Amino acid sequence: MKIHGRCHCGQIAFTALIDPQRVVACHCTDCQTFSGGPFRASVAVAADQVQMQGQATEYVKTADSGNARVQGFCGTCGTHLYATALNDRSTLGLRLGCVAERAQLPPVGQVWGQSAMPWLPELPATPCHLQGPASRLRG
Ligand SMILES: [Zn+2]
Ligand SMILES: [Zn+2]
After folding, report:
1. What pTM was computed for the model?
2. Comparing 47-51, 61-65, 80-84, 87-91, which segment has the lowest mean pLDDT?
3. Do 70 and 8 contact (CB within 8 A), yes or no?
4. For residue 76, how far is its CA from the centre of ligand 2 (angstroms)?
5. Dist CA 49 CA 124 (whole Å)
6. Where are the domains of the chain?
7. Which residues surround ligand 1, an ion (CB under 5 A)?
8. Is a pLDDT exceeding 90 seen at residue 63?
9. What is the SS3 assignment for 23?
């Protein structure tokens, strides 16, 4: 499936050919911190299947295990774009939050459930406005 990614300010964009069966939601604490959200969804893809336009800023995070992961983001607007291994860039994990087709790409699995937000399962049952807080509730 062809996907189209774009950061919020538009300086960086990408297209990629991905396998929807490789979409995963990660609940690790690093993904929570980087994304500002309760989890982060990504799709793993061979780097040669990705066309990147624009120059991402990179931050290398080192896990407790010593594993170093490159985090690519837009240096202007901060949108998360991809992650890859420091010493082997043959596979990219593209961040679904900036992908136009994300609504059609449900995760097929989840990792790091031990740090998943305990309130996530209850979220669908809480009041949900269709737009801002003054708007109609979802039926
Ligand atoms: Zn940007
Ligand atoms: Zn994670």
Report:
1. 0.93
2. 61-65
3. no
4. 23
5. 35
6. 2-125
7. 7, 9, 11, 74, 76-77
8. no
9. strand
Give the residue carrying structure tokens 């896990």.
63
Distance 80 CA to ligand 1 centre (A): 9
Architecture, CATH, for domain 2-125: Beta Complex (2.170)
Tokens linked to 70: 């490159």
Return the structure tokens found at 102.
């994300």
How far apart are alpha carbons 60 and 71 in whole angstroms? 6
Task: Calculate how far, in angstroms, residue 67's C-alpha sits from the geometric centre of ligand 2.
Answer: 13
Q: Which two tokens stand for residue 130?
A: 């269709």
Query: Separation of 57 CA from ligand 1 center, angstroms?
Result: 10
User: Tell me: the pLDDT tens digits for 72-84?
Assistant: 999 999 999 999 9
Q: Which ligand is nearest to the CA of 80?
A: 1
Which residues face 17 on adjacent strands?
2
